[in-house]
Amino acid sequence: MNPPTPLLRPSPRAWAEALAVVAAALAAMGAVAALGLWAAGAAGLPSGAFPAVLAATVASAVGGTVEVTAGAGLLGRTGATLAAVPLSVTLAGALAAGAALLRPPRHGPPSGPAELPARAARATVLWLLALLGIARAGRHTFRVGLGSSLLDELGEVLGAQPTAGFRADVGTTLGWGLVWLLAVSAVAVCVSRRTPLPAPLMRLREAAGPAVRAVSGLLLGYVLLGLAVGLAVPAAHGHPARTAAVLLLGLPNLAWLALGVGLGGAWEGGVPGAGIGLPVPPALAAVLREGGGADATVDLASLSRHDGRAWVLVAVAAVALAAAGFLTARAFPAPLWRQGVRLAVGLAAGLWAAGAATGLSARYGLSLLGIGELGTFGQAVRLRALLPRLCGLGALWGLVAGVLGGLAARVVPGGGRGGRMRGTGPGRPGRG
């Protein structure tokens, strides 16, 4: 009789390890989100709304949307939607979850090939339960004063006392939260070189591991570079609290936009009125205001009209990609054509994910006494990547960087030579 699988009949220790994955992700996301919201001034929200705002931010970090509602009783109503991913919170949770997922057990026998998939499956069950609680907690409603006691009393009599609130959407939070954890698990499988895996996942790691490691390192490197630049902003221009809020909530959003623009990619978007209200690069804010609320194109040409230093992004992207191609070729020797193809595919996929995650959509409108249509929403803040252009240029840059990196690795002493990925195979884990 075959022994029971770890998934169907696990021990309490196995569930504790899965719980540790979920707890690590939520702790990291909660800490980063709380600090970012505090820096943004959310701690001063009325009616004790901060815990609900924190829960809604965590829900947004895994792809959930937040619905903002307001009303004036029987006389009027307002509505809004917000779809934006605070990628600093997302990245913190992904790193924590991935590290906990790959951590070997402290006690008991060494894990077998089926242990990692089983742990990921158990963590998924607990993760969805946790997200359900977070989405339910991410809602709050509070009354908005009219400015004087007389107006407040009149509003109560007429049933027109303004209220405002928000709620995290349960469906999108659970759906995209599941996709998020599956993506984190897949990346963890590809970047790990010690963890034993079943034969199909071993072959996946051998095929996709080099590209995933290279692109993940590139994206993380850009975040660290953006952090260094961001830390210099308060010293030069002031606004330390607002800058900290951007770093703790949206640093990868700006860093990966800079990477895409440096490679020739583009975003479209616009903001109504005076602007964004956050200390984003002045050139970016100026481009988004150009259309007066209509779509404007954010690319090297438009940014350089407001700041000639934008062309530095090309040089930074070229150096970063050259380093990624060279280091990948040194660590994972292969024929030149394979070096180019795997980095092209990996960079195109990575830029697609980064471009989609950096999108922003915030719509709001007003309907008062039946005048105006709530469903059409009066104004909007938008930012979306032009994904075909971004992915196509990413594939081209990746192909060139992979081939040139392979050539450089052969020239440099101790460089790579064509062959299989070192230390891997269908029957054994790779060396760290």
Walk me through what this model shows.
Helix content is 59%, strand content 11%. Helix 1 crosses helix 2 (50-61). It contains 13 helices and 8 strands. It has helices at residues 12-40, 50-61, 87-102, 115-137, 149-158, 170-191, 199-237, 240-262, 282-290, 300-306, 312-331, 336-357, 387-411; strands spanning 66-71, 76-84, 139-143, 163-168, 267-270, 296-298, 360-368, 379-385. Strand 1 and strand 2 (76-84) form a beta hairpin. The protein folds into 2 domains: 10-197, no CATH class; 210-426, no CATH class.
Give the overall form.
globular
Structural class: alpha+beta
Number of helices: 13
Order of helices and strands: HHEEHHEHEHHHEHEHHHEEH
Largest sheet: 8 strands, antiparallel
Helix content: 55-70%
Strand order of the largest sheet: 3-4-1-2-7-8-5-6
Tally of distinct domains:
2
Describe this structure in a few short sentences.
With 432 residues, the chain is an alpha+beta fold. The protein is built from 13 helices and eight strands. The chain has helices at 12-40, 50-61, 87-102, 115-137, 149-158, 170-191, 199-237, 240-262, 282-290, 300-306, 312-331, 336-357, 387-411; strands at 66-71, 76-84, 139-143, 163-168, 267-270, 296-298, 360-368, 379-385.
Map the helices and strands.
Layout: H1 12-40, H2 50-61, E1 66-71, E2 76-84, H3 87-102, H4 115-137, E3 139-143, H5 149-158, E4 163-168, H6 170-191, H7 199-237, H8 240-262, E5 267-270, H9 282-290, E6 296-298, H10 300-306, H11 312-331, H12 336-357, E7 360-368, E8 379-385, H13 387-411
Antiparallel strand pairs: 1-2, 1-4, 2-7, 3-4, 5-6, 5-8, 7-8
Helix pairs in contact: 1-2, 1-3, 1-4, 1-8, 2-4, 3-6, 3-8, 4-6, 6-7, 7-8, 7-11, 7-12, 8-11, 8-12, 9-10, 11-13, 12-13
